[in-house]
Amino acid sequence: MVILMIGKGANEIRPATLAEVLKVLEKRQGTAGEFGFEQQTTLEYARRFSHLKLSDAEEMYKELVELEVKPETAVKVVDLLPIKSQLMLILAKNKEELPEKKMEKVLELVAKFQKKAKKFEPKVIDAPAAVPSPEAEKPAEAKEAAEPEKEEKKEKK
């Protein structure tokens, strides 16, 4: 959701695609100085997950609205470029029903814009190093000293 403000009042409140959020934040970054934690995190998120250029996102959004898709749903579709099962979940969450013909048109539109989308590269997180066992941490001398103690206990039994 983007709130466009002029002065102290909200001029316009509407859902916004990640491409729009990215544009607004990049524009503000040059003029507003350093961002706070929330703005910086949002900017990084928008850079990473915005699949379409702003012009493509706006075009797709307009075409979805022309198909009588709710604006909130249209924004999610533009941001996610979903497959059919994901589209059905988005529609269900927004309590929206589309006839089968319109759903097929939406999926065709998604397929058209997926070709223009930048590829998503998942971030690989390195696995933590293996935790050494307590035995491995003992110096060699301590291990040798512990072995005779074990043998003595066995002999006493």
In short:
The protein is mainly α and 157 residues long. It is built from eight helices and two strands, in the order E-E-H-H-H-H-H-H-H-H.
Structure in words:
By secondary structure, the protein is mainly alpha-helical. The chain has a single domain (2-114), classed as Up-down Bundle (Growth Hormone, Chain: A), CATH 1.20.1250.40. It has eight helices and two strands, in the order ββαααααααα. It has a two-stranded antiparallel ribbon.
Distance between the termini: 75 Å
Instruction: Please state roughly what percent of the residues sit in beta strands, choosing from under 5%, 5-15%, 15-25%, 25-35%, 35-45% or over 45%.
Output: 5-15%
Q: What ranges have pLDDT less than 50 throughout 5 or more consecutive residues? A: none
Counting structural domains, the number is: 1
Question: How are the elements arranged and paired?
Answer:
Layout: E1 2-6, E2 9-14, H1 18-32, H2 37-49, H3 54-66, H4 71-80, H5 84-93, H6 100-114, H7 134-137, H8 140-156
Antiparallel strand pairs: 1-2
Helix pairs in contact: 1-2, 3-4, 3-6
Looking at this protein, list some descriptive labels:
157 residues; mainly alpha; Growth Hormone, Chain: A; two-stranded antiparallel ribbon; 8 helices
